[in-house]
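Worked problem 6 (solution included).
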Amino acid sequence: MPLTFRPARPSEHALLKKMIVDCFEPITWFKTADQKYGPMNGLDWRARWDLRLAKIFATQIILVGEQDGEILACATGTYDPATAMGFVDLLAVVAASQGSGLGREMLRGIIAHFQQMGAVYAHLDCLTTNEVANRLYAAEGFDKAMQSIRWIKKI
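Solution. The predicted structure is:
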């Protein structure tokens, strides 16, 4: 059964936060920074994710994908009408459903949402070490525009 898409409700933010943190925990550079430097200014990686997600929930489009009323995936992002660009920020699938194609469906869902808003382009960033996601984006027709390195220095 395919996912149906709709905007998230504020009452669902706690559920979405857990899903997103669970998805990103194995790959987040926030955790890598903690391993090297310890908590930053007293905030460990989870606290920094809390701050990031609070801002996302306050400012971004948050779309959920559900089956039979159960939220199984979500995506967040913004739309810039000046450039007709939809920016996908986060894409997450509940742990029990990962690898089942729901990430692909959710990606297509947020892109369709952006298209309805007038988007002609879609943009996203992904860590080079996130091989599963990078294979998905390549398979979905995204072109690698640039690679970057995230540098950190304790000063």
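Discussion: The beta strands are 4-7, 61-67, 70-80, 85-93, 121-124.
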